[in-house]
What we know:
By secondary structure, this protein is mostly helical.
Amino acid sequence: MSDKLSLNNELRKLDTKARGFYDELDEQEVKKFSPYVMMRYAASVEGPPELQEWYLRATNERVNINFFDVSTTKHKKLQWLLCTTVSPGMGVQRHYWINPKKKESANSKVEKLLKQLYPLAKDDEIALLAEINDPKEIQQLARQHGMEDKDIKVK
């Protein structure tokens, strides 16, 4: 990988608002460049809470909104330019990765049903009940609570 596409270099270019960076990439580098990775890193920095909030809000308002509506293959330059607007121009920052939201667990239907049965239970308690009980046991429990078979969905 070229030095241009090292993560440190890309983030430095983002913080210094190097809008011409994308134009300097050759054809192979353009294929490897990921606006999504830049967006994820742009949203978070170390430093004072005000600076952290600035980067997060600016990324959400300017880059994250409709990110996937803008084709990542046809409009990478536009997405790069949007990423460069995030920096408030206060020098190079130390960015870190924010993990995307986790997908729903395999027991999500079971957990939703348990949440109906036990609305005051905490999420970790619901997850534990879903994990230690068989779906057939959950169905039986729902029947005991007066639910009809047509309303019980655990699969």
